[in-house]
Each structure stands twice: as C-alpha cells, then as structure tokens.
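Hi V.,

You were right to ask for the full record rather than a summary. Here it is.
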Amino acid sequence: MRRLGTTPAGGERGAISVLVAILMVTLLGFTALAVDVGMLYAERTQLRNGADSAALAIAQKCARNITDADCSTSSTLARSLANSNARDGASNISSLVLDKAAGTVKVTAGAQEAGHAPNHVSLFFARALGFNDATVTAGATVQWGRPVAGPTAFPIAFSICQVKFHIDGGLQLLVSHGSKTETPCNYGPSGAVVPGGFGWLQRPSGTCAGIVNAANWAPSDPGNSYPGVCDDQLRSWASDITAGKDVTVLLPLFDQVAGTGSSTTYKLISFAAFRVTGWSFNGNSFPTTFHNKPPSVDPALTCDGSCTGIIGSFVHYVSLDNAYTLGPAPDFGAGVVKLMQ
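Predicted structure:
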C-alpha cells in the first residue's frame, strides 16, 4: 500500500520548465506590447508634431508670399522643424506635396535612425517574436487662403477705398464717422452717403462681435455710440499695446452701401489685416491724448470733434484662427492657414 501511494520522485520533473517556456512567449508578447508599442506611439507623436509644424510654417510662407523660397517642395524649413520636434533631433521628410492652385500643403515626416532605412526604427522585445523594426510616419495637411467668412474682432466695417494701395504703408485713420473723406470714396456713414449710419455691424445680443460673411450683405447697427459690451475688448487691446505687443485684427471691408438708417446694409467683399495703435469712440479713447496730438504727429491722424475711428496701419498678416472659412476674395493683406488633418 505504501508503494502504491508513493509517486516516483522524477514523475513530474521538468514540467515547470515546459510551463515557463510556454508562458515566456506570452510574457514577451505583453512586454513587446508595453515597451515597443509605447515607444512607437511616442515616436509617432513627435513626428506628428514635426509634420504639423512644418506644414503650418510652409503654408504661412505661401499665404504671405506665394513666390517665397520656402513655399516650395525643396524648402529646408520643413526638415528643420521636423527635426526640432524629434527628441533625438533626427527625422526625415518622407514626402512634401504642395498644391499652390488649391492652397494646400501635405507634409509626411518619418523616423530616421542610424543604420536603418528611412522611416524605420528598431524594436527591442518584439525581436523575440520575429519583428526587428517597424515603419513610423505621421502626416499633416494644411490649407491656406483668403478669409471670406468668420468672426469680427470688432463690430465695424470700413470702405474698400480706405485701404486701397496702403498695405504695409504708414499710419492711417479709419473714420467710422466724421468729416474726413476722400473723393471719390464710398465711405458710407463717414461720407454721409448713409444718413444716420456709423459703420457698426449687427451682432448677437450681449456680444462684442459676431460672424460675418464677406460674400453677403451685412445689416448695420445704427447709432453713433460704439457697443458698451466691447469695453473689455478695448481694454485688452490697450493693455497689449501698452506692453509693447502688436494688436493685429481682421476687419471686414465693403464696397457698396444700400438703404438708410436702420435699414442700411453693407456689401462685404473681403477682410483686411489692420495693426491697431489707437482709437477714438464716444467715451473711450486710447491713448488718452488721442484728441491732443503733439505737433509732430501728422494732422491727418487727428480725430477730434465728432470724429470717431481707429488709427493703425494695414499690414500683411497670416492668422491661425480655424474659425474662418476660406474662399475667393481680394487680397488686402489678410491670410488664414488651417490645419485640416
């Protein structure tokens, strides 16, 4: 009986080794998943950042000047930005597709590891499963163009004749109401073409500005006083200008006016980029000496009496605000780039 109930000492010898060997494959698989896949995810994230930066930078160059040397498939800007977003400072531009007619650029960034083909990175634990390396790339597509619809920084529109031939010029006074006009110039309210109108645009209740479409007629908001709800916006501008920062906004332009008083509408055609340096509205002026310019200041920039308006200059400016819709519109210095994917 004692002999029948006794299991030979070597009966299960080696069973644990077999079990461990079988489980080791599974363990290596999980380790590869945790380490190698995590490494690939981090690498792709860096490449994605690099592709985004490269595509946005090239699109900005194209939006500002289509003949810029960096607005090309041979641009060195893309490679430098892709590398600067890689932790090891090494990546490659797998492809750069530029369509100037459509206003799009697509950049694909790939991994670059010494001793490996472009776009390939070494794996570690996955080698035990027969996978020595992996291909890692990431792409980004950006569109650029002229804004035709989007948010206004301030609920006011100006006539096209106030900006023609003055982009990147000196300071100008944009009059929303007053006696300073050019002839011929369809100022609308400032030229008394629209009795009772002051260039203000309708906006949602309780907001400083709204969404306008430069392909449509925009209804006006009659009255001389600017909307008090815009006080915060003007304070923000004043704070930035005082701190030495540029305040550049996209202002809608019109080339036709219809109706009078509360029935006035403006035919918007485009946006212009305007760098604000001062303003005078009823009860709100910046700087506080707006009405008392020193003698050295061009008298044409003085806004006194019943005059209301903004001082600044029209510039070439590219916005990264995705809220704008792009389309065919005259070029008055304003461009927009949008990350599509």
